[in-house]
Amino acid sequence: MKEIKMTKIPKCxxxxxxxxxxxxxxxxxxxxxxxxxYADHGTKGGLGSKLxxxxxxxxxxxxxxxxxxxxxxxxxxMEMAVMxxxxxxxxxxxxxxxxxxxDGESVFCDDCGEHYEVGNCC
Length: 122
Ligand SMILES: [Zn+2]
Ligand SMILES: [Zn+2]
Prior knowledge:
binds zinc ion
């Protein structure tokens, strides 16, 4: 069975537990299923894909070549960086805020596992 890398595991369509498969059900439509519901509702024969969590640790060569997104600090961010020695760029991928040093150049987002570049505050 092939694997799909996801940054967040979706919920099982049947019971709401973390899903393990994206596969066709016996009724036809595809859905996310946990292992228990896959046994109950999934089709035989290994159709579908297994979901694996990707925290961005095994970034493929292709992804590395893609240009990273950059977040530029606003005036307020710069003031905060000078005052507090830290500022909070917003992750361009998921929108959550991550603490960053004033002279930081790249940030790793704990929330979605993406890296992005930040403009220099100094
Ligand atoms: Zn389930
Ligand atoms: Zn993020």
